[in-house]
Specification:
Elements (H helix, E strand, L loop, with lengths): L1 H9 L21 H8 L14 H9 L5 H5 L3 H8 L12 H4 L7 H12 L5 E2 L13 E10 L2 E11 L9 E6 L6 H24 L4 E5 L2 H12 L3 H12 L3 E3 H8 E2 L6 H7 L11 H12 L5 H32 L10
Parallel strand pairs: 2-5, 5-6
Antiparallel strand pairs: 1-7, 2-3, 3-4
Amino acid sequence: IAATAQQSQTSNAVDLLVEPVSSGECPDCPWLSQCNLVLLAGSGDPSLLPGISYAQWRVFQDLGIKDRAGVAALSYRTARLLTTKAPPEELVDLDPATAVFGAASFLPAAILNARAAIEELAVYRLPGRTGTGVARADIELDVDMESTNDGVYLWGVLITDRAKGGLVEPGYLPFISLDPIDPAVEAMVFKSFWQWMTDLMTRAAAAGVSVNAYCWYASAENTQMRRIAAADPVLAAEVAAFIASPHWIDMNQVFKESWITGGSNSLKTVAPLAGHNWSVDDAGGGVSMVKHLDATNPGMPEAARREARQWLLDYNRGDVEATLRIREWLDSGGATWPEVATS
């Protein structure tokens, strides 16, 4: 099969050995460019929609829906009525092409995502959302951690003093160790970050200055903070209180609650829509692990180790700058973007 596929790719043939389906494994697949000839044709394959599994894609295929335009053409009203178990008296004038899906729970979101994906704007408001209320503060801290399979070696903070009160120096502040990662090193790096942040919050509260901390997809940072703090009951309690507070804000969740793109909600996808670009090549978690190996490898030339260390800092700085850029983008224009069509 591989030999036949290689021959097909070389000859630019269009005969398919298998039917391409987008999945989470696609970015690492050497055949992605070949599959994309099919997946991206026309309005794009339904498997390109976020959250669509192979089983759900199969439902679309079996019911004759072959592209995102076909999904977008389904009736959102019918899909919502059937999935919310509406009273019988409301189940009137249903669209037959949509009703055949029954109470498929994935369908309403798929229809909205398809409509957002094929329309001209990059982002739309979700139905009923005002696009206002992005939480801001006098001092804003954008936080991002970097880790390997051995643990966390970097907590990076971008400090924005919107009130210009002088309580803190604006800019990027990394808490980092490039020593071999073990529990002691992890704890040292985290406690340095934690003590700095909690001291700032204490001083700010005394001065009547508000402070919010932000991240993108808080589950990652929350998991690591809880794990590292677990050995110290006092620290663990402080971390738990911080995570539960309104001053720790997941910008990914904020975005998903009010806006829709029809595609991925990852930081690397949304930030460029807001006009942000990373200063490093190949910005991503996988590359960062390779760079960390280079930065900590005593067998590497010192110049190469310095370059890798700088790459790690620049990459982390790019991540925290991205969350600030998205927040400003949403705050300034998010209310003006149209709602995704529901009719």
